Amino acid sequence: MPDHSLFRLRVLPWYIALAISGSYSSAWADDDIQFDSRFLELKGDTKIDLKRFSSQGYVEPGKYNLTVQVNKQPLPDDHDIFWYASEKEAGKTYACLTPALLAQFGLKEDIAKSLQWSRNGECLAPGQLEGIDIKADLSQSALLISLPQAYLEYSDIDWDPPSRWDDGIPGLIADYSINAQTRHDEQSGDDSNDITGNGTVGANLGPWRLRADWQTDYQHTRSGDDDEDSDGNSTQRNWEWSRYYAWRALPSLKAKLALGEDYLNSDIFDGFNYVGGSVSTDDQMLPPNLRGYAPDISGVAHTTAKVTVSQMGRVIYETQVPAGPFRIQDLGDSVSGTLHVRIEEQNGQVQEYDISTASMPFLTRQGQVRYKVMMGRPQEWGHNIAGGFFSGGEASWGIANGWSLYGGALADENYQSAAIGVGRDLSILGAMAFDVTHSHVRLDENTAYNNRTLDGNSFRVSYAKDFDELDSRVTFAGYRFSEKNFMTMSEYLDAKDADMVRSGNDKEMYTVTYNQNFRDAAVSVYLNYTHRTYWDRPEQTNYNVMMSHYFNMGSIRNMSVSLTGYRYEYDKSTDKGMYLSLSMPWGDSSTVSYNGNYGSGSDSSQVGYFSRIDDASHYQINVGTSENHGSVDGYYSRDGSLAKVDLSANYHEGEYQSAGISLQGGATLTAHGGALHRTQNMGGTRLLIDADGVSGVPVEGNGSPVYTNMFGKAVVADVNNYYRNQAYIDLTKLPENAEATQSVVQATLTEGAIGYRKFAVISGQKAMAVLRLSDGSHPPFGAEVKNSDEQQVGLVDDDGNVYLAGVKPGERMTVSWNGEAHCDIALPDPLPADLFNGLLLPCQTKGAVAPATSPDVKPVIQEQTQRVTPTEPPTSISVNQ
């Protein structure tokens, strides 16, 4: 068939939709709207089936599978919607909104309780909610519902109410992060190999998440000594399960129940490891603009380096980074407290420092209460109990508009602390909070304090503000002063040990994180600063400040220059310096740059080339000098479907050669299938995609696309908790013999859930066919052809022609019109070589058709090759009333 006839079949639904839209606009108030089929250029005696397209207000009674949109936001799944004839108005029908469907609207509790139901409680009685507007758009298979915002709990474009949260499906997970490095020292001849890893395994059972964290380290060093005796080699191995825990969401309380080994994440008290349980308000369940602060970790790597972030000895993040400044911003807002950062350079240099992840001011909306309750026993590394039973809690109460009162207590037999504070939303001036914490500690004669009782206070003020008019943000600014006798729980646990003396003994701490953009000058500034003083040791100052400027030079556009100053102190060692970077575009996706690192250690200068290969991969090459020695560094990164892979190679003249690889990924297995996938958030939320068994389908959802495996499954990992997430098929990259009839899905998942969504993907060849009924006529215009999975694979035109997708040898399909299945067709087996030459398919009474074979059909096809007289599609469509 000529190409323009194929085009006419493809755009048939658009003709119909466009004609209907014309009738809607000109006769919006009419009850009886007729669609004039003459404007589709049909033959005079052409049969036509347009009932499901033709009426704006009236919908035939029956069942319709539709996408439901509430205030233009689609609900996660399609729904079977029944239309019933109105008992009060003749000739009218109404949509049956079931209690289960209404529960997903997010109605206020008092509104939901007042609703009346009809048809034995199956349907919402019409006419109850003033201002509600319900429309059916059958051409788009959608039910459009408009609700006044006054009826809804809360409105946010990317947030769904608890009624739409999905606990996912049962399944098993195994996530990992593996880093391997090898290094040859040219001066000593020593070779070293280092493999480190951490990860999470677990299971999901309904709303419960069961997890276990592990970490491992393997180090092997071979001496360059020619004797090669056993003393010249050393090997160290370590594997440990660092944490066992479980949790589940409590949606009705906007809270989370956690059991097992945990770290005390508190907005008031300093954290420590413990084993026990807790119930806490989960900020992730709040709308996005009411959620808390996520930690931001920044630093500078002198060479390609491994960055490890840990908390009380437990590794929570590990990755490789190329030389230069880096920022880690994907830890999530559930991480708080003091984090330890370790940067291991390829040249053997190690930087270490602590980051205090300060909390936003503890504010709560008027009339609401946010709280945390915990109990258990303190725990040391290695699952060892470190103290007696303790309990504690904290809460914030929105006492008035803009004002919050908060406080808490934490105690065991010999340690008690209590805090009270007040927070104030200052509107255009930001938000501020002030609190004071008092501690009371009893220590016996077996400690270094010789049976003493210590009382002390700690005072804190914190501030946060987005200055939209200045395009700047104070993410957090805080000051804390602690008296000499004040103790946190972790300090008390150290002090009560007879073999230890209290460590730390904080006095003052200043901290600020600040972003500023000067748009007119094309300059941006970022600052992360912490200054700490102690009662028993020297002060420490850590900071990272970066200034960037973007500019044009002649015909070269989008050049940039950035200057980073940094200083990190830890355990009496200091690393400080300055990093200069100048870059300019080179082609569409490449950049050339100059990088200079000056300060502690050796100064270095490098010329670099960066290129983005595609959306998922890039590489970087640097050539330069360090201490008058030449160096070459290479770095490659790819976000693959199975794992995230980072590769590095380094050569420094006369010093060392090294190479490294980093893998981050996981495996998810459920009763619906499973897949290997990349991930960064160990044990986190993910979405299992089912493409109806079709492999190689590109799915976009979070970053670069992932492709379905041989079983038609893929996993989109690291999706946001309690946040409307979308995944969609990239139709431009579909395999040749695949077609998607549904290409977008969405899910709002609880923390740690394994969501499951299925795309309607048709696999098989494409073909042009002619359908004939037993009397020689053809099915009416607009009749549907569906496969055995009830997927629509074609629409019949005015000559009985149909463009079929997903054609398979011997497959049976059903042809339907007027809402009923009338006859069946069968594809030949094997299929003919040319499927676009017009395949004649008899449409026989449903159930009576026998599978066709290619030899029997081919002669009939040849006789029918002259039957089609293509016509051009109309250039315009109008509606005649």
TrEMBL record:
It holds the Pfam family Usher. Belongs to the fimbrial export usher family. Residues 862-881 have a biased composition (Polar residues). Residues 34-180 form the PapC N-terminal domain. The gene is papC_1. The lineage of its organism: Bacteria, Pseudomonadati, Pseudomonadota, Gammaproteobacteria, Enterobacterales. Keywords: Cell outer membrane, Fimbrium biogenesis, Membrane, Signal, Transmembrane, Transmembrane beta strand, Transport. InterPro entries: Fimb_usher, Fimbrial_membr_usher_CS, FimD_plug_dom, PapC-like_C, PapC-like_C_sf, PapC_N, PapC_N_sf. This is Outer membrane usher protein PapC. Residues 1-29 form the signal peptide. Residues 771-826 form the PapC-like C-terminal domain. It is found in: Cell outer membrane. It comes from Pseudocitrobacter corydidari. It is a multi-pass membrane protein. Residues 183-206, 850-881 are annotated as: Disordered. NCBIfam families: PRK15284.1. Coiled coil: none annotated.
